[in-house]
Specification:
Strand content: 5-15%
Helix content: 40-55%
Number of helices: 18
Structural class: alpha/beta
Length: 449
C-alpha cells in the first residue's frame, strides 16, 4: 500500500490511481489521519492531471461509503428518486417538483444545499417558512417519506463526511472547478440516498457556473456516466440560465411563486423545467412508457392540486404549524400573513418604449446578494425578505415609465451604483424574430444508457 506522499506524487506525475489508492486517500481524509496540506496537494494534483472514468467512479463510491448510506423498505424498490441542479437565479424547481413526484407515487428523499455567492439555496428558501426544519435524522426522513412521500432536508453529519472535508478545502485551494471533484461531490451525496433514479439539471449561460453549452455538456456526461456506474439510473437535462427562472428572485418571494405554481398559476418556464425533469424521472422508474406521458402526469399533479396537498403535508411533517401550512396552501391566502415582507419596496421604470429583449439574471442576483439575500461564506445568515419581482417578461412590449422591476430590501438600502446596474440589466429593442418565438430553457436531454 502506497503512503500518502507516494499517492500524491503518483497523481502529480499523471498516473491513474488504483481502487486501493483512492480508498487509502478517502479513508485518511475521513479518519483525519492526513494533514490538510497533503489533502490540498492531492486536490491540486487531481485538478491539474484530471481522472479517468474508473478513477472518478471509485472516488465517488468511496466518498459515498465514508458515512451512513440510507436504506429503504423493499416495497419502495424502483420508486426512490431525486434531482440535482447546478444552481441558478430564481431556481425554485425543487419546491414544486418534489411534491409533484410524491403525488405520482415516487419517494423523494431530497437532500439539498444552501446558497453561496449569487446562486440561491433550496434550504434557505424553505427556512423562510416559519417553523420549517431542514434538520432531520435518517429515522425521521424514513418516517416522513412513509407518510408524505417527499422531504427536503440538509445533509446530516453522518452522510458523506469525506465530502464535507474535501468541499471546504476545494474552496481554500482553488480547485472548486475540477470536473472529477465536482462529479464526486454531487453523485456521492445522491448515492448515499440509495436512489433508483436521478435527474440532473445542468445549467449553462451568463448566470450559470458554465457559460457555454459544450462545457456544461462535459459535466453532464461525467455526472451521468458516474451515476450509472454506481447503479443509479441517471439522466441529465441541459438548460439555459441567462435570465431568471420565473419572475421572483429571493427566498420568501420564491416560496410565494412556488406556492402560486402549486396552485396552478405558475410561469411557463418554471413549469417547463418541472415537467421535463419530473417526466424524465417517471420514465426512468418505469411508471410511464414515454417522456410525453411523464410530463403530462407531472403537469396534472401540479394543476390538479395533488402536489399542493403533498407540499402542505411535507411542511407539517417538517415542523410548520398546521394553521400556517394550511393558510399558505389555501386558494386565497395573503402570503405575507405567514412569510416575512421586506420593509421597503422600490419600482424601476422602463426608460423608453420597446420590446423586452433580455433581463440579465446575473446582475439581478449579484445586487440582491449584496443587499443580503445571499452569503459570501458558509454559515453566514441571509435576509429571507430581500428579493426582486420581474414585472415584465421577454418578448413583452412596454411603454416608457412603466414599472419593470420591484425591488424588496431592508438594510442596507441599494446604492446609486446598484440601481444603475439593475437599470442596465434590462435590454429593450424593436420587434424581432427572436421574441416572436416561444423561448424554451431546455436545450438537450442526456438519457441513461
Amino acid at each position: 500500500m502506497l503512503s500518502i506522499p507516494e499517492l500524491i506524487r503518483k497523481k502529480r506525475d499523471g498516473g491513474a490511481l488504483t481502487d486501493e489508492d483512492v480508498r487509502t486517500f478517502i479513508q485518511a481524509v475521513t479518519q483525519k489521519t492526513i494533514q490538510d496540506c497533503q489533502t490540498g496537494a492531492m486536490l491540486m494534483a487531481i485538478w491539474q492531471k484530471g481522472m479517468i472514468n474508473t478513477e472518478i467512479v471509485t472516488l465517488t463510491r468511496e466518498m459515498m461509503s465514508s458515512g451512513e448510506v440510507l436504506s429503504w423498505p423493499k416495497e419502495w424498490a424502483g420508486l426512490v428518486v431525486d434531482k440535482h441542479s447546478t444552481g441558478g437565479v430564481g431556481d425554485k424547481v425543487s419546491l414544486v417538483l418534489a411534491p409533484a413526484l410524491a403525488a405520482c407515487g415516487c419517494k423523494v428523499p431530497m437532500i439539498s444545499g444552501r446558497g453561496l455567492a449569487h446562486t440561491g439555496g433550496t434550504l434557505d428558501k424553505l427556512e423562510s417558512i416559519p417553523g420549517f426544519n431542514i434538520n432531520q435524522s435518517a429515522a425521521q426522513i424514513l418516517e416522513i417519506l412513509t407518510s408524505v412521500g417527499c422531504c427536503i432536508v440538509g445533509q446530516t453529519e453522518l452522510l458523506v463526511p469525506a465530502d464535507r472535508v474535501l468541499y471546504a478545502l476545494r474552496d481554500a485551494t482553488s480547485t472548486v472547478d475540477s470536473l472529477p471533484l465536482i462529479t464526486g461531490s454531487i453523485i456521492s451525496k445522491k448515492g448515499a440516498e440509495s436512489l433508483t433514479a436521478l435527474v440532473l439539471d445542468v445549467k449553462f449561460g451568463r448566470a450559470a457556473l458554465y457559460k457555454d453549452l459544450d462545457s456544461a455538456k462535459e459535466l453532464a456526461q461525467s455526472l451521468v456516466s458516474v451515476g450509472n456506474g454506481l447503479g443509479i439510473r441517471t439522466g441529465a437535462v441541459l438548460s439555459c440560465m441567462d435570465g431568471t427562472i420565473g419572475r421572483c428572485v429571493g427566498n420568501s418571494l420564491e416560496v410565494m411563486e412556488s406556492l402560486e405554481t402549486l396552485k396552478g398559476r405558475g410561469p411557463d418556464d418554471l413549469m417547463e423545467l418541472v415537467t421535463t425533469l419530473g417526466g424524465l424521472l417517471l420514465l426512468m422508474t418505469g411508471l410511464v412508457s414515454d417522456q410525453s406521458e411523464g410530463r403530462k402526469k407531472i403537469s396534472d399533479a401540479v394543476i390538479g392540486g395533488a402536489a399542493l396537498s403533498k407540499f402542505q403535508a411535507m411542511m407539517e411533517a417538517q415542523g410548520v404549524a398546521n394553521e400556517t401550512a394550511r393558510s399558505l396552501c389555501s386558494a386565497h391566502t395573503e402570503d405575507y400573513s405567514a412569510l416575512r415582507r421586506s420593509e421597503h419596496q422600490r419600482e424601476l421604470k422602463s426608460p423608453a418604449d420597446g420590446v423586452v429583449l433580455d433581463v440579465d439574471g446575473l446582475v439581478l442576483a449579484e445586487v440582491l446578494h449584496k443587499l443580503g439575500a445571499g452569503r459570501s461564506m458558509a454559515g453566514e445568515p441571509v435576509n429571507h425578505s430581500v428579493g426582486a419581482e420581474l414585472l415584465v417578461s421577454v418578448g413583452q412590449r412596454v411603454k416608457k415609465g412603466v414599472s419593470w422591476l420591484r425591488l424588496h430590501y431592508e438594510s442596507p438600502a441599494p446604492t446609486p451604483d446598484q440601481i444603475h446596474r439593475l437599470e442596465k440589466a434590462l435590454t429593450l429593442g424593436t420587434d424581432n424574430a427572436r421574441t416572436q418565438q416561444k423561448q424554451t430553457l431546455v436545450k438537450e436531454l442526456l438519457l441513461p444508457r
